[in-house]
């Protein structure tokens, strides 16, 4: 899935909202996004700085990789159990 905004841009938009110079509705219209997207970003990135967001992204990718490894190991273990049962 291609993202339209980078994490740095998202954090910048959230910072604009924190300043409170304009309403959230006007801010969303300015950046051409929905309010639902804005609030989803605020839940995910609220209070993060750019380095924190990068670290979060790295941790999420590492977590996904580790989950795949565990799933593969479970398949191997199930296969070995099946072989032992047949003997």
Automatic annotation (TrEMBL):
GO MF terms, alphabetically ordered: DNA binding; transposase activity
InterPro entries found in the cross-reference section: Homeodomain-like_sf, Transposase_8, Transposase_8_domain
GO BP annotation list: DNA transposition
Coiled coil: none
PANTHER family attached to this UniProt entry: LOW CALCIUM RESPONSE LOCUS PROTEIN S (PTHR33609), TRANSPOSASE (PTHR33609:SF1)
Family: Belongs to the transposase 8 family.
Name the UniProt record assigns to this protein: Transposase IS1404
Gene source species: Arenimonas malthae CC-JY-1
